[in-house]
Write a structure and sequence with these properties.
- The chain is of the alpha+beta class.
- It has three domains: 124 residues, Butyryl-Coa Dehydrogenase, subunit A, domain 1, CATH 1.10.540; 105 residues, Butyryl-CoA Dehydrogenase, subunit A, domain 2, CATH 2.40.110.10; 145 residues, Butyryl-CoA Dehydrogenase, subunit A, domain 3 (Up-down Bundle).
- 50% of the residues lie in helices and 15% in strands.
- The protein has a four-stranded mixed beta sheet. Strands 2-3-7-6 form a four-stranded antiparallel beta sheet, with helices on one face. Strands 9-10 form a two-stranded antiparallel ribbon.
- α4 packs antiparallel against α5 and α9 packs across α11.
- The longest helix has 35 residues.
- The radius of gyration is 22 Å and the shape is globular.
Amino acid sequence: MSSRSLPPFDPADPLGLDDLLSTEELAVRDTVRAWAADRVLPHVAEWYERGELPGIRDLARELGRVGALGMSLEGYGCAGASAVQYGLACLELEAADSGIRSLVSVQGSLAMYAIHRFGTEEQKQRWLPGMAAGETIGCFGLTEPDVGSDPAAMRTRARRAGADWVLNGRKMWITNGSVAGVAVVWAGTEDGIRGFVVPTDAPGFSAPEITHKWSLRASVTSELVLDDVRLPADAVLPGATGLRGPLSCLSHARYGIVWGSMGAARSSFHAALDYAGSREQFGRPIAGFQLTQAKLADMALELHKGVLLAHHLGRRMDAGTLRPEQISFGKLNNVREAIEICRTSRTILGANGISLEYPVMRHATNLESVLTYEGTVEMHQLVLGKALTGVDAFR
């Protein structure tokens, strides 16, 4: 083939991965990218510096209007998008900020997904349309102050009181908690772990916001406090008993992280590439030095391999063949590589890399949280280790 017939090399898409996307998938990506560029990027550095996400309810409604909430769910006002479309949206949202992607992920992949998959028709009709529109914000209560990677050891309990349930306990590090209208809370019962749909205006429920964070600062993070919260019998999610319920929700959220982390990496890489072309030292742009080019080449390799991995997992999810171990593969690799891309990008920017005028340090600190939530590095290594060897090393 003559080189004259080849398409030009595109530094933004060096592998030509856009060729793998349909017209509809590209349209979804471009819609979310344009929304983030308009509503998040001009303000997110200030939000991060202030440690708050002002106007979160307005943002949620706008995200509902673009179809980003409960995006891959069917019915009840949800978009019914493909897994790849949802993944592309996560990538674009996290390219703006991990906190925005977390808002969408917790709303759709955790709270809405739990109700959609395990709830009654009445629960779905009551909650999902408002959540899909962003009129009601949801949160997901699993992690506790003393219980993280071992949710079976949770201390939150639900006991029968006549026909009602009474919940007592604490949940920690809950995204959206202080602004949520509904919480999906997991608690131990005499029949095992069960999920409960908890209106946040129920007496005994409170959600104090967690402050003094150095990561996910443009995000609402809370504790959930349940002191004798009395719920009717129909508050329980009937389709989930045991850990399979919450863990399946986490798998859905982890899939979004596989894509989203590559958005943070892409933003940092492009900042470093642009900076290297304009920053001059020793009489020429630093992009012309071999060590800088080596860094850029290595970052581009890991970035686009990660996007290709996410795309592959998305196609498997759409085909119904994606296994939880494969999601662990993607989450472990992509978040770990995204952090390394951010750190290497920071070295190219030098001292400017720590300034909020550039997105690099903001993404790097956010990814420290992403590395931990929805399964730590160690947990995903053990998931893969068990799958590869057949030996369970968790206990």
